Amino acid sequence: MRLLMSVTSLLLLALAANGCSDSSGPQSTETQWVVGEWSAFTSPPDKFLGMSLVLHGTTVTGPGNWCDNLVCGTTSVTGTVAGNTVHMVTTFDTGQIETFDGTLESTNTIVGSETEVSAGGQTQLPVAQTFQRIMVDPV
To answer: Which 3-state string (H, E, C) describes 23-75?
Structure first.
């Protein structure tokens, strides 16, 4: 009887420990670089795109904001990371969608190209895009 109770206790403990684990598995330090605050200033110089990225396995997500000629709004980002490459889709509150494909150039710079699809469905040619890590001072 004690053996049955011990085996049952161990089984319940193992199930509880498994239930508390991250189902996406451990995050590789190889992909951790994408986590944090990023921004891009584009031409003309009054255009800005910022995002706060988190990582779940190889999926990257996060909220963001944008400004263009003193008009500002919000965005949401979804994508994937593999090694030092990233694919992101940014959806703007205006209905515009931008797709970005790039690589980590340094610990603070992602370089690539983005393609924009307007709310009306028109696709623009890819343009160069660079994101810089925003350094946040600790509290």
So the answer is: CCCCCCCCCHHHCEEEEEEECCCCEEEEEEEEEECCEEEEEEEEEECCEEEEE
How much is the pLDDT for 43? 65
The CA–CA distances, whole Å, from 49 to 42, 43, 68, 90, 93 equal 8, 12, 9, 10, 13
Instruction: Tell me the per-residue pLDDT of 40-99, one tens digit each, with 9 for 90 and over.
Output: 977 666 789 999 999 999 999 999 999 988 899 999 999 999 999 999 999 999 999 999
Measured from the Cβ of residue 88, the count of other Cβ atoms closer than 10 Å reads 26
Of 3-17, 30-44, 55-69, the one with minimum mean pLDDT is 3-17
Residue type present at position 78: T
* Cβ-contact 59, 24 below 8 angstroms: yes
